[in-house]
Amino acid sequence: AASFQLPVSSFTERPKLPDNYTQDTWQKLHEAVGAIQSSISIKYNLEELYQAVENLCSYKVSATLYKQLRQVCEDHVKAQILQFREYPFLVHRNDSLDSLLFLKKINKCWQDHCRQMIMIRSIFLFLDRTYVLQNSMLPSIWDMGLELFRNHVISDKQVQNKTIDGILLLIERERNGEAVDRSLLRSLLSMLSDLQQVYKESFEQRFLEETNCLYAAEGQRLMQEREVPEYLHHVNKRLEEEGDRVITYLDHSTQKPLIACVEKQLLGEHLKAILQKGLDNLLDENRISDLTQTYQLFSRVKGGQQILLQHWSEYIKNFGTTIVVNPEKDKDMVQELLDFKDKVDHIIEVCFQKNEKFINLMKESFETFINKRPNKPAELIAKYVDSKLRAGNKEATDEELERILDKIMIIFRFIHGKDVFEAFYKKDLAKRLLVGKSASVDAEKSMLSKLKHECGAAFTSKLEGMFKDMELSKDVMVQFKQYMQNQSDPGNIDLTVNILTMGYWPTYTPMEVHLNSEMIKLQEVFKTFYLGKHSGRKLQWQTTLGHAVLKAEFKEGKKEFQVSLFQTLVLLMFNEGDEFSFEEIKMATGVEDSELRRTLQSLACGKARVLIKNPKGKDVEDGDKFIFNGDFKHKLFRIKINQIQMKETVEEQVSTTERVFQDRQYQIDAAIVRIMKMRKTLGHNLLVSELYNQLKFPVKPGDLKKRIESLIDRDYMERDKDNPNQYHYVA
Q1: Residue pLDDT, tens place only, 515-556
Q2: CB neighbours of 186 closer than 8 A, spacing ≥ 6?
Q3: Which parts pass through the membrane (predicted)?
Q4: Res 345 pLDDT > 60
């Protein structure tokens, strides 16, 4: 496009026009316009022509001049249509070569028209800026040119169809991967845009319809043929290509409907199918980049995130359930839960842009599946914490241990029956404290504060009491040592006692055994010392928790054994003789049958065999004989013989769980009485819903009903005489 700057001079006074000036001048201008339209050189100087237009306008012939100019332009544009009417290939609509030639021809016609109108306007600029500007009904010279081109060339049905068919064919070829002349497309589409409604009405509508059909078919076909990651990759590629088309040659207004069409046909129509076909696989294999792409694409489509959320939740529940409900997997359950939680957290952070909805639904899903199997996860989490806090857990530094405990607390949060956790945790903590097997006091205290923060002070008060007992016991022992030094016969056994407050610690079944005289004497000395300081207290010795260090001599030399009290009683018998039968040992020690069998097993069938069993065998049977092993060898000086009785038995496990249930009954009773005392009269449903609010563990309506009946039987409350669903408190 060329533009000319021509000087504008103003006349102070108007000279008189010579005769025939108007006609002669128009003749000159007409010739110049004709030369421009024929692309030949103009005989006159452009400034002279510009001046001529200005002179005519000054003499009030603007209206005639505009009409004459319009007529000349119209005649020229009308003549253009003939070349297309006579265009030899108009019949073959789909011949792509013919179509391309036609497009180039129409493009040339349009480019020529634009160039000519720019030249013509530069000559008639004065007319355009005065007369045309003052008459709002008249189009400017440029717009007049567009109007003529639209009315006489593009509005011709044959030409318009052929042009749009050709453009659509080129776009289709490009979509199929061919290289096409993009500048030709850009030029033609901007022509349609310049010609106002032609782009919207004639081109865009057909273009979007064809796009819709193409992607509907492509979506159906590729969903069958391709795996989900490849399919989504293709969708992404298509969206990028169409975005690029808008930037390169389509009108910007087409972007929204075009992209919406691609999204609907390639994604919106297949949301469910895509997830059913491939999501589980992507999650199983932790395909981070594919999951990121899934989230990004689904977020573009209405309802996409919602359906992705549902499938996400289902996946977590299904996968989590397989971890929790299978008893064979109990050994690894907690570690698998932690690994699974790490994995979903990572996916939310990296792939799902930390979306709150995905985080919240993940938490709900965890809570759902972990409580599908009541009590067991709580018990196993307590045991897992025990394994991490026990001495000998070399795998973690303090920081790592802290991190593991934090992760455990997150899983712990999802559990409904937290009292089961507490019972097992307390039992294991007791073992760690009493056997001195705690890895680190700091880690123990840290875990306690986490539990306190999560469940309140009431939950941890007993656990804190256990720590307090251990600290107080140390002080008591310092005083006892001094007390012993002042005794006339301090004896040669070094006694350490832990004083445990009954309510804080797990319930231990007292077991009467036959201690030797020296031990009994020491117990009495301690009792006298302790009750002298704390009168009114009652001491009950817990033989199951006792342990000792024994010195022994073998042919190879001296050794020390770290053993339980029961193991101690058995081994001390061999100071009196070299061989004893099972029955004799049982008689002498007074240890309970199954406990004694386990004890003998640890001494005669384990790794460190201080005794020899006759006959050989894994299990201890009636009538077995036990002989002192004088040839005992071991690379260590101090040997710890594993105390089999410290291992948890199935009965112990069951009794811990049963104690929790018993405890729950008391809590339900107390809650019912508390509510009734405050409300005096209450309907059954209201009482039940109030109980659900107050109780911290899961409970079935049937269980609540039983407790209510029990309290009615015990006269804490009564039924209303007229309405059996109403209760009254009995003071």
Answers
A1: 988 888 888 899 989 988 888 888 889 888 888 999 998 888
A2: 248, 249
A3: none
A4: yes
Whole-number pLDDT of residue 221: 96
Round to whole Å and give the CA distance between 367 and 320.
10
Beta carbons within 10 angstroms of residue 523's beta carbon: 15
Beta-sheet strands, E only, within 174-312:
none
Residue 636 has what DSSP assignment? Answer: -
Tokens of 288: 């981070």
Q: What CA–CA distance (Å, rounded) separates 675 from 673?
A: 6
pLDDT at 608: 83
pTM of the model: 0.75
Task: Map tokens 């567009």 to a residue.
Answer: 146
Query: What is the DSSP annotation of 348-391?
Result: HHHTSTT-HHHHHHHHHHHHHHHTSS-SHHHHHHHHHHHHHHBT
Q: How far apart are the first and last CA of the chain?
A: 104
Nearest one of 451, 424, 426, 435 to 390, comparing CA atoms: 435
Across the beta sheet with 726-729, what order do the strands follow? 681-683, 726-729, 717-719
580: three-class secondary structure by DSSP: strand
Instruction: Note whether 192 and 155 are within 8 A (CB).
Output: no
The pLDDT mean for the chain works out to: 88
Which residues of 543-632 form beta strands (DSSP E)? Answer: 547-554, 557-564, 579-581, 611-614, 625-628
Residue 358 exposed, middle or buried by CB count within 10 Å (0-12, 13-18, 19+): buried
Partners of 579 in beta bridges = 627
How far apart (Å, rounded) are the C-alpha atoms in residues 617 and 600?
Answer: 12
Residue 409, beta-bridge partner list: none
| CB within 8 Å of 148: residues ≥ 6 apart | 70, 73, 74, 77
Q: What's 438's DSSP letter?
A: B
Residue 237, both tokens: 């590629």
- Strand ranges, E, within 224-279: none
Residue 679 has pLDDT above 60, yes or no: yes
User: How crowded is the C-beta side of 299, counted as CA atoms within 13 Å?
Assistant: 12
Contact call for residues 606 and 642 (beta carbons, < 8 A): yes
C-beta separation of 401 from 407 below 8 A: no
State the maximum Cα–Cα separation within the chain, in Å, rounded to a whole number.
158
Which distant-in-sequence residues (6+ apart) come within 8 Å of 646 by Cβ?
431, 435, 564
DSSP 647: S
Q: How is residue 261 written in tokens?
A: 């069409």
608: helix, strand or coil? coil
Backbone angles phi, psi at 43, to 5 degrees: -70, -25
Long-range contacts of 692-700 (CB under 8 A, 24+ apart): 695/667, 695/668, 695/671, 696/418, 696/419, 696/455, 697/416, 697/417, 697/418, 697/419, 697/664, 697/667, 698/371, 698/374, 698/416, 698/417, 699/664, 699/668
Which contiguous run of DSSP H or E holds residue 474? helix 457-485
State the burial class of residue 81 (Cβ atoms within 10 Å of its Cβ: 0-12, 13-18, 19+): middle
Pick from 545, 534, 532, 533: nearest CA to 496: 545
Long-range pairs for 604-608: beta carbons < 8 A, 24 or more residues apart: 606/641, 606/642, 608/561, 608/632, 608/634, 608/639, 608/641
Contact in structure between 410 and 447 (CB atoms under 8 Å): no
pLDDT at 643 over 90: no
